[in-house]
Structures are given as C-alpha cells and as structure tokens.
Design goal:
The chain is an alpha+beta fold. It folds into 2 domains: about 5-50 and about 270-400, no CATH class; about 80-260, no CATH class. About 55% of the residues lie in helices and about 20% in strands. The strands form 2 sheets. Strands 4-5-10-7-9-8 form a 6-stranded mixed barrel. Strands 2-3 form a two-stranded antiparallel sheet. The two termini are about 25 Å apart.
Length: about 400
C-alpha cells in the first residue's frame, strides 16, 4: 500500500477512537508544551539579566575597594578598605589609554528626613561624570555641576522610590530635606531603573556631589567604588589589565594581595548568561522527561491496537499484504499520534508562555529553536515507541491472526 493510503487509513482508525487517541497523546502535548514554556521562561530571565547588567552602564569596568564575595546571593565587601582614593580615578583617566572616563563614588545607607517623614535611603556620592557612566537619566530637574561638586554644595538628585516613600509622591524639585541632619535641596529626579542583578532597588537612591558626601556627610578621605568606561566593548579586558597594573603600582602592593576587586561588565554578562543558559537547559531537560512518558502512552495504545486488530491484520496478510505493509501501517499511526501531540503541544506551549508573560508572572521569550526541537523530538518518540508494536503486528501469522476472537 502506498504511503498516502496508509495515512488515510490511519487517520480513519484514530478518528474512530477519539478518547483513546486524545489520552495517548496527552503526555506528548504536556511534554512539548512544558519544554517550550520552561525554555521561554529561561530565555526571558536571560533577557532580563542582560538588561539589568546594561543598566549599570555601557562598556563598564567597576573597581571596588577590598576583596568582595557573593554572600546570600549578593556581592559583599568582606572588609573595610580605605586605600581606594578619588585620585585613583584621575590617574586611571590619565594613565590608562583604553579608559574613556572614570567616576569615583561612595554609597551608604543614611536616614533622610522631610517634615515628619523618615526614610532609610541609599545615599550615593558621585561626580557629575558618574551620571553618564551609570546611565542615570532625569525625568525632571537637573544634575549638579562640577562647581557644585568642588564647593561641596548640599544639593541632591533623588530616585522614584525615595520620592514615593519620603516625599509621599509629591514633586520633589525645590523641596528641602535632611540627610544625617545635614540640610539638602532637591534639584532633580532620576528616571526609573528597577533592580540590579543582586535584587537591589536602583530607584532607592539619593545622589549628591562626591565632595559633599565625603566631607559633609561621611567625613572620609576614601571612596568605595570607581566606575570606569572603556573606549569600546572590545577593550574591556585591556582596561581591566591596565587598571590592575596601575593600582598595584599606586598602592605599592608589590607581593601583597590586591586591596581592590575589578568587575568586567563583559565577563559578568557572560557568566550570568552561562548560568541562566545552564539552568534553562536543565529545566528543559527535566520537562522533556514527560515526552518519554507520552511515548510510553503511545506504546501502550499501539499494543492494544495490535491485539484488537489481529483479525484485520490476518485478513490483510491473507489477501496479499506483506510484513512491510503491516509494519509501515502501524509506524504511520504512531507517527501521526506523536505528530498530532507535537503540534498541539507547540500551540499549548506558546499560548501558555504568552499568557504567563501577559499576566506578569515572568517575562518570557519564545525560543523557536526549542519549538522545532520539541516537535522533532515528539515525532522521534512516536517512531521509537511505535517500532515494537509495528514489528509485533508484522510478525503475526495470518492463520493464527484470523482465529483470534
């Protein structure tokens, strides 16, 4: 019998047992859908991480004072180090050819007070150039200038979270408030940025001139961080090496351990993407196990079908059908079951991924390669698990098959 004839006959047979057909492909539908959904969630997480890292700045290298460790999922400085200076940032710009700019910064939690309201905010002291390096943009007002930084003026730019919690959502421009009892005037408000890769709220911030933070607020002579921008993305590794050599020389470390830690944005991005991709692959593989369960369902249904259709098989063999015809017939049926389950699973997975994203549970990105692999794997499962029933049907002796009740 031709392939087209086998397909038509298989469709008729499967359509005659609708409930059994549906139950046999349910595992395939769930398996393919789960693979697509899990991979879509993983790709969405990867996209979000890339966005969060790029929110830090463009072509950025971050120099932190002291050695840092990841503790409870967040980067922590394991000791207080006072050797990183604002002058180091000036030296980086001057002596590192691959660096386009540098901005020293210090950040600490401090109590802000406005009228009867108190709020524990993150106070960031940074130079004017730090706004562009950190991708800090304004929705209203202005940023402080270099003269205000040198004069240690008590002016501040506040984030949306601070506006909501301290100023109760009022327009903050021109309002007077206090940080650690030091009076400040709000001159600007930053645009929303969300959270960083450590889950820190980037909008919970009060930005003040670096000189003001160091002298008037915290009374220190050192900084915690230096943000360095490379001239291009391809120079990030070179900038990191140049900074390392420069700071080792300036801090006279010689054979001692470095008293600073450098984070390369490109390396951080690659590491986070690799971690997310590994998790996505793991979760997708676990979801794919349900495809094997679906294959077992097809195997069971096809074995039942062989037993029920033994007389039909014997009759076809008696009128001239060969073993190959019988085997192909059952292989076509199992492939149709798996193919139908794969198509429905693809539709189910895509719709579920879109629904998850639409209702705001997770951001999802449909992975079309995952869709293709899921469908191809489902058809392969149908063929593999259909081989044994097909061979068993083909090996039935015509006389014994015709005697079957």
């Amino acid at each position: 019998m031709k392939l087209s004839g086998n397909v038509v006959l298989s469709v008729e047979i499967l359509a005659a047992h609708k409930l059994r057909t549906l139950l046999s492909i349910l595992g395939i539908i769930v398996g393919v859908g789960a693979v697509i959904l899990m991979v879509s969630i993983g790709k969405g997480a990867e996209k979000r991480i890339v966005k969060l890292i790029r929110n830090m700045g463009t072509n950025l290298v971050v120099v932190n004072a002291g050695q840092t460790r990841i503790i409870a999922g967040r980067q922590r400085q394991i000791e207080n180090v006072t050797t990183l200076l604002a002058g180091d940032a000036e030296a980086i710009v001057r002596d590192c050819p691959s660096a386009a700019g540098a901005a020293p910064a210090i950040v600490r939690k401090s109590v802000a007070r406005w009228e009867a309201e108190n709020y524990n905010a993150s106070v960031l002291g940074i130079t004017r150039s730090g706004f562009s390096l950190r991708n800090l943009t304004l929705v209203s007002g202005r940023i402080f200038d270099e003269e205000e930084d040198r004069a240690r003026r008590r002016v501040a730019v506040v984030g949306p979270t601070v506006v909501e919690n301290l100023f109760l959502g009022k327009n903050p421009i021109g309002l007077k408030f206090r940080i650690n009892r030091v009076p400040f005037e709000v001159i600007g408000m930053t645009a929303p940025k969300g959270t960083d890769i450590n889950g820190m709220d980037l909008d919970d911030i009060v930005v003040v001139p670096l000189g003001t933070a160091m002298r008037r607020l915290f009374n220190v002579t050192y900084v915690q961080t230096i943000y360095v921008q490379a001239r291009s993305a391809g120079l990030l590794d070179r900038v990191e090496n140049e900074i390392t050599l420069l700071l080792e020389q300036r801090h006279r470390l010689r054979n001692r351990p470095d008293d600073f830690t450098i984070q390369n944005q490109a390396t951080l991005l690659a590491t986070e993407k690799e971690t997310t991709s590994s998790m996505t692959a793991l979760i997708g593989s676990v979801a794919a196990i349900s495809l094997l369960v679906g294959g077992v369902g097809i195997l069971a249904v096809m074995l039942i079908s062989v037993r029920e259709r033994a007389r039909e098989i014997g009759l076809r063999r008696a009128v001239g059908a060969c073993r190959l015809d019988i085997r192909n017939q059952f292989l076509v049926e199992s492939s149709l079951l798996a193919g139908a389950g794969g198509i429905l699973g693809v539709i189910f997975g895509i719709l579920t991924a879109l629904a998850v994203s639409a209702f705001g549970y997770w951001e999802t990105v449909i992975s079309w390669p995952a869709v293709g692999y899921g469908f191809a794997f489902s058809v392969s499962v149908g063929l593999i698990f259909g081989i044994y029933p097909a061979v068993r049907a083909a090996n039935l002796e015509p006389i014994q098959a015709l005697r079957t009740e």
